[in-house]
TrEMBL record:
InterPro entries for the chain: NADP_DH_HndA-like, NuoE-like, NuoE_N, Thioredoxin-like_sf
Protein name as catalogued: Formate dehydrogenase gamma subunit
Gene Ontology MF, one: 2 iron, 2 sulfur cluster binding
Organism: Paraburkholderia ultramafica
Residue positions binding [2Fe-2S] cluster: 79, 84, 121, 125
Keyword Thylakoid: no
Record-linked Pfam families: 2Fe-2S_thioredx
Cofactor(s) listed: [2Fe-2S] cluster
Family: Belongs to the complex I 24 kDa subunit family.
Cofactor: record remark: Binds 1 [2Fe-2S] cluster.
UniProt KW keywords: 2Fe-2S, Iron, Iron-sulfur, Metal-binding
Amino acid sequence: MDDSHAIAPDQLVQRHARPGLSLLAVLHAIQDELGYVPPATVAPLARALNLSRAEVHGVITYYHHFRSEPAAPVTVQLCRAEACRSMGTEALAQHIEAHTGCRFDAEHQHGATVELESVYCLGQCALSPALMLNGTLHAKVTPQKFDAIFAAASKCVEVTA
């Protein structure tokens, strides 16, 4: 998914920055294409949208959704909001850390195969605890359900690697 080396930042911005589109829309389009927003696109985005580099950088860093580097092949985003907490997400988080050998919200290690992120509300309050694994939403997640979906995702990564 990371073909940022083949695409110059100016070309990437030209492809996505259209009149009438907001900075957020353009950032989403870039991230949808590459899986992240390369830091080298900040200056071209600022020029194209008549913003300062600080404004563009501020939006990228303010919203947790935007990445400035590629995600790990297996990315788990666990809801840590109140409804999920009341339904056992903290115990599930401990299980996930033990099962994967990773820590939630740890500094992303380049080349790591698994990344664990805390998020705050996936909109599945009535079906908590909830998580997203590689962008796919899962609800009513138990440790056993996590193990099964994690194994399937890990197997896919091994096959494509």
